[in-house]
Amino acid sequence: MLARVDAAVASVRHPPGSLLRHRLGTFVVLRDEVATDRRLVLDHAAPDASDSVVEGGITLDDPSAASIVSALEERSLGGRPTRVGLRRVQLTERATGVRRYGGLELRDERRFEIPAEGRYATDGCFVHTPFDEEAAATLMTACRFGLRTALRGSEGLADVAMLELEGAWHLAFFDRIPGGGGFAATVDREALRSVFSVARLALERLRLDALEQFRAAWDPRPRSRQGEWRARDVLRWLDALLDREKERRRAATRGYTPGEGQRGDLGRLWIGRSGRADELLWTRHRWESPVTLHDAEGDTIAPGDVFFDAGIERAILHSPRRRAGDSPLAPFAELLKERAREHYETTALALVAAIPTRADEGAGADRDPARTFFTRHADPLAKALLLAALVPQARVVEDGEGHVAVKLGERVWSLDGPSPRVLERFDGAPLAAD
């Protein structure tokens, strides 16, 4: 016998195919014999077994949805209030399938004809959201990660689910311990802001190449039911929920620190509103400069490897009120003009070309130039749009096969990188504005 687990939740916590970690190693559940012999039959997992995700959810048996919703109270987490409340509930937790991974590779995926169930009384912290199902699912997925990160010891003993109550989607932070274990109460009392803050950080920093891995690890719905990822909608709500209104409206300020002596260091420039350093998102732009630049003292920097660090406050980057004429890129373009002088266009071309080029992400991709600049995540069109934002006289052109380039003066440039390249033959037309 390796361990003991409450029979009321054993079948949903550890269904067949899931992994169980123990000081003696990692084991895979072979059979559920809880109903007959009150045991789970295990075997050693494959050496590369890394994780398993139990698919499923919860339903409420008692009290009624109307009773829960009516008991929620408005609460501020720093910004606009939302409705939150802790309730004792009787729920049914169901496991409908299991995904098991070896490294990043899906090794086993199974569905249960008869879902495993566990019925028990526990505590739940309920949070009202303004979202439809897909946006609520995005928030739930991020909060499952946030709960594990912000609340030490909660792994396997607390979870987050989404429930439609009285026509609105709610998050339910609940203890997976019959009778309750104090985790939901801690979320209600003091940890909700921390969980939401970690969830926000995760959503902001996710790149498309990591999104599939993140959803594989944290979205408990079957892959066939995982719909649109709605991070932008969720981030707007979290910003309004967590940030004070005066911070969101305050005029942007900036700060600059010159390079610290390392060759090619152009310094650090940031813009923000609140003045809080922990609210800044940083990125480093590094490229091979083909021209001579100048440092803050006016001394020359020979052609070669150069870099500078750019920081922006989260609320500015993700603000839904940003307009094209109010671009947060302007201070960074000014810095580049000061450092490059008459070589500004050449420098902008080199900086943008050095951004790693992803595959074409399709018509629905977010190609906002500011996000491209600060995330350094871009397909060819996103890079071209960024250059056009930095150099207004540049024109984005596209040929009949969908290849994108930039026309600047009499030349057409490819920005695929790592350095800009002149295209001698490019039969393209200006790209129509959206």
Count the strands? 20
List low-pLDDT spans: none
Using only C-alpha atoms, the radius of gyration works out to 26 Å
The number of helical segments is 13
- As a percent range, the share of helical residues equals 25-40%
- The coarse overall form would be elongated
Which percent range describes the beta-strand content? 35-45%
Would you tell me the structural class of the helices and strands? alpha+beta
Sheet with most strands: 6 strands, antiparallel
What is the mean pLDDT? 86
**Distance from first to last alpha carbon:** 64 Å
Number of domains: 2
Write structural notes for this entry.
By secondary structure, this protein is of the alpha+beta class. It has 2 domains: about 55-240, no CATH class; about 250-430, no CATH class. About 30% of the residues lie in helices and about 35% in strands. It contains 13 helices and 20 strands. The protein has helices spanning about 5-15, 35, 65-70, 135-150, 185-205, 210-220, 230-240, 245-250, 315, 330-340, 345-355, 370-375, 380-390, and strands at about 20, 25-35, 40-45, 50-60, 75, 80-100, 105-130, 160-165, 170-175, 255, 265-270, 280-290, 295, 300, 305-315, 395-400, 405-410, 410-415, 420, 430. Strands 4, 5, 6, 7, 8 and 9 form a 6-stranded antiparallel sheet that branches. Strand 8 (about 160-165) and strand 9 form a beta hairpin. The chain is elongated.
